[in-house]
Design brief:
The complex is a heterodimer of chains A (194) and B (160).
Chain A lengths: L2 E3 L4 E9 L6 H10 L10 E4 L5 E14 L2 E9 L7 H8 L4 E7 L5 H17 L9 E6 L9 H8 L6 E3 L8 H18 L1
Parallel strand pairs in A: 2-5, 2-6, 6-7, 7-8
Antiparallel strand pairs in A: 1-2, 3-4, 4-5
Chain B lengths: L5 E3 L1 H17 L4 E6 L4 E6 L6 H21 L7 E5 L4 E7 L2 E7 L5 H31 L10 H6 L3
Antiparallel strand pairs in B: 2-3, 2-6, 4-5, 5-6
The chains are: A alpha/beta (194), B alpha+beta (160).
The structure holds guanosine-5'-triphosphate (GTP) and magnesium ion.
């Protein structure tokens, strides 16, 4: 949940990257980390297995600038995508202000995308949130690969509410910031609504 | 909006800081931090040196989130405190509603001292946090919220 500190004049928001195993969530954060100025970011913390799969979460704080004299700080998290880490995914969703769903565009990952999206809806509900009411963006990742499902087909399967959709190749940084901007904008607009 | 934003005002921040400062002295601690359960750092007092308080807060919250889930699996509702004892530095985390009081201490103090001395502080912190939660709810309902004046241009300018 958004945390507004009048003493330090800071707004803290939490954004979570969700999606099936190996879809590229950690790669999104890594790219954001690699391409932001040192003064705008903190450490990238990765709680990962020996083989670089996310075990609990990745975390990085990112400062985007000031709105009306308040520093806006986004806490970016990824969840572990592997199916059996569901307990961890639930924990990371607590207090979330905005969600990015990273889909893997490869044909053979279509079922995994659907399963993960369904899991997201369920886990949000168990925390009292509704996907339809929270800031939400869909990213279609790995567009560089040869065996991808056409964009419109993928979108028609995965779209939930006319959310913004971005094609991405996270490993080359393509579409990563567009995705982040879209979700951050929605989070700040929500704040305005109160 | 998923949940009411927490709004922390200057006078409440000062009250929290003074409780932390006193607790730090009474516990003979190195650092005392107050962290939101979602991992947002709220306030701290003590010898921060090169401690990365942002990363530390997020990990403390993740740590408590994991142990709380473990508690539920074995039929406990919550572990009210989490302790990590190192060779020189140790960490004591006390769960206070939606927040965590984290004490970092070394051989100049002891776990039993920290446990006793944080008890009173926990009640004080809890009552300030309740006040903050009440005010946040009132603020949300008031039409003249500062943030209602944010414009599209303000938001766009963040990304230029
Ligand atoms: N070709 C290609 N590979 C990608 C792309 N994005 C990520 N990858 C690769 O996919 C693999 C998995 O990426 P991660 O970012 O670790 O995936 P993850 O979603 O964090 O996976 P979990 O932590 O298990 O949930 C890595 O080898 C990445 O380099 C992309 O856009 N194109
Ligand atoms: Mg990962």
């Amino acid at each position: 949940m958004t945390f507004i500190n009048y003493a330090s004049r800071e707004i803290n928001c939490k954004i979570v990257y969700y999606g099936p195993g190996l879809c590229g969530k950690t790669t999104n954060l890594q790219h954001i980390y690699d391409s932001t100025a040192p003064q705008a970011k903190g450490k990238l913390i990765s709680l990962a297995t020996e083989t670089d799969r996310t075990l609990f979460f990745d975390f990085m704080p990112l400062e985007l600038g000031t709105v009306r004299g308040f520093k806006t700080r986004f806490h970016l998290y990824t969840v572990p995508g592997q199916v059996y880490y569901d307990a961890s995914r639930k924990l990371i969703l607590k207090g979330v202000d905005g969600v990015v769903f990273v889909a893997d565009s490869q044909e053979e990952r279509m079922d995994a995308n659907l399963e993960s999206l369904y899991n997201l809806e369920e886990n949000l509900q168990s925390q009292g949130y509704d996907l339809l009411n929270i800031p939400y963006v869909l990213q279609l990742n790995k567009r560089d690969l040869p065996n991808v499902v056409p964009t419109d087909e993928l979108a028609s399967e995965l779209l939930r509410k006319g959310e913004p959709v971005f094609e991405a190749t996270a490993s080359q940084g393509v579409g990563v910031f567009d995705t982040l901007k879209a979700v951050a904008k929605q989070v700040l607009s929500e704040l305005r609504k109160g | 909006m998923a949940e009411t934003p927490v709004v922390l005002h200057e006078h409440q921040f000062i009250k929290l800081k003074s409780v932390l400062a006193r607790t730090c002295v009474e516990c003979a601690a190195r650092v005392v931090l107050l962290v939101d359960r979602d991992g947002h750092p709220i306030a701290f007092h003590g010898d921060i040196a090169d401690l990365d308080t942002t990363s530390f807060s997020s990990l403390a919250a993740g740590n408590v989130a994991a142990t709380t889930s473990m508690a539920k699996l074995i039929g406990e509702n919550v572990f009210p405190a989490v302790v990590h004892e190192g060779e020189r530095e140790s960490i004591f985390i006390s769960v206070i509603g939606r927040s965590l009081l984290v004490v970092v201490f070394d051989e100049r103090s002891t776990l039993s001292l920290v446990k006793i001395r944080t008890k009173k502080a926990s009640y004080e912190v809890a009552s300030i946090l309740e006040e903050i939660a009440r005010d946040s709810e009132t603020q949300r309902q008031s039409e003249t919220s500062f943030f209602s004046e944010i414009t599209d241009d303000d938001i766009d300018s963040l990304f230029s």
